[in-house]
Design a protein that fits this description.
Order of helices and strands: EEEHHHEEHEHEHEHHEHEHEHEEEHHHHE
Number of helices: 15
Strand content: 15-25%
Structural class: alpha/beta
Length: 417
């Protein structure tokens, strides 16, 4: 049994990862020193006030010691020891051809073995990078997917698996339900066949709903909706559908103009359309529904809620997140495309790429415009596609500032059952 907390050393102090919530909490150097000492010496003896402040979070054992492991690592200066989330493409193939797929043209050649992925997972754990997204393509097309999931959890990582759901059968439903997945995301692109099938192909909505009903008998799952221009008009119906199908959570994310979506920009909502959809969700929720303040996709939430744990500007590409392609190519963000690949895991360790490769160091060195003519915040991938380069303005960020300075609601809707 692992302790519920991990103290991850950082140049500013530490991040404490809570395995029970799969979240990081930052602390400065002074508090970090006390936290480390309190692993063996009760915190009420060291600092009673800090104990009273943190005790409601369940950080301490009955004798007042911090219930944590301390990661044995020396952090680099100027950036995190490791990313807070790593998105790993386990397969570059899919049996659908969605009009908005961020993975781009599929299939692509090359695939890391389970042993190669296990070595990556061990390295990520040693860097305090515990949050893992397993994506594709369609992950369920890998026959050894469960071996990959098991390898990740055995290393102490917290995997999230995203699938279109169409390959789920009784075997997959039972096996996924038995795994300790932090999230199991099933993607839908509408509350009705007309909207969904426009993106994913004729007949896919009815098939997906049938598979989701089967999954709900065995596993806890999230329905993940991508807000396109058509879907924005039916977000309330999407929440109703999620409740009907037994989803624990409904997640709404905006379409990014990357991958295949670059060829279908008419599907991309404007910022105002996206924000209006979130406002509609907020105003229509029942008292029993809970909105979580977690939205890594919307510039206003990132701006107001995210603790500043890195130097630089933007969405966290190369500072908070990283991605690995099926063939082992590492990048600051999967949305940036192969042009930003930093190197391959078959030639370099992930740690060396994260710390020293030009792909990551150059991304962290990018500045922020103060004259309104370049990138001032938001998403580098959106700036690259819509503005032509990484330092172009993100039009959504400007639209947010023009619309309101108030924080919008989160795009995660938890359904209380």
């Amino acid at each position: 049994m692992r302790p519920p907390l991990v103290v991850v050393p950082q140049h500013f102090g530490s991040l404490v990862f809570d395995r029970r919530t799969s979240r990081y909490v930052p602390f400065d150097r002074e508090v970090t020193d006390l936290l480390v000492r309190s692993v063996s010496t009760p915190m009420p003896v060291l600092q009673p006030a800090l104990f009273e402040a943190l005790e409601p979070r369940g950080y301490f054992t009955l004798d007042g010691c911090l219930h944590a492991a301390v990661l044995p690592a020396t952090p680099p200066q100027g950036h995190l020891l490791g990313p807070l989330a790593v998105h790993v493409e386990v397969i570059a193939a899919c049996d659908l051809s969605c009009a908005h797929c961020f993975a781009g043209t599929l299939p692509r050649k090359g695939q890391l073995s389970v042993n190669e992925l296990d070595a990556l997972f061990a390295e990520l754990a040693s860097m305090g990078a515990f949050r893992l997204g397993l994506t594709g393509g369609e992950p369920l097309m890998r026959r050894d997917l469960l071996d990959i999931v098991d390898a990740a959890t055995e290393r102490g990582l917290h995997p999230c698996l995203t699938t279109h759901g169409l390959r789920i059968d009784e075997h997959w439903a039972r096996q996924l339900g038995q795994r300790d997945l932090v999230w199991l995301n099933v993607s839908l692109d509408g509350a009705r066949a007309e909207t969904h099938d426009r993106i994913r192909g004729a007949g896919t909505f009815d098939r997906a709903v049938e598979k989701i009903r089967l999954l709900s008998k065995h596993a806890r799952f999230t329905l993940a909706f991508t807000i396109t221009e058509p879907l924005a008009q039916e977000v309330e119906d999407c929440v109703a559908l999620a409740k009907e199908l037994g989803a624990h959570t409904a997640v709404f994310r905006p379409l990014y103009p990357v991958g295949t979506a670059e060829q279908h920009l008419a599907l991309m909502p404007s910022y105002d359309t996206y924000a209006d959809a979130l406002d509609t969700l907020s105003s229509s929720l029942a008292p029993s529904d809970d909105l979580h303040a977690i939205d890594p996709f919307s510039p206003q939430i990132r701006h107001t809620l995210q603790a500043k744990t890195f130097v630089g500007h933007g969405c966290g590409a190369g500072t908070l997140i990283a991605s690995v392609s099926a063939a082992g190519d590492c990048s600051p963000c999967s949305f940036l495309g192969p042009g930003s690949d930093a190197g391959n895991l078959r030639e370099h360790s992930f740690r060396s790429l994260w710390n020293r490769s030009e792909g990551f160091t150059a991304m962290r060195a990018l500045g922020c415009s103060s004259c309104g003519q370049g990138f001032e915040g938001g998403c580098r991938a959106r700036a690259q596609t819509l503005g032509g380069h990484l330092d172009a303005p993100d039009p959504w960020y400007d639209a947010w500032r023009a619309r309101t300075a108030d924080r919008h609601p989160s795009t995660n809707v938890e359904i209380t059952r």
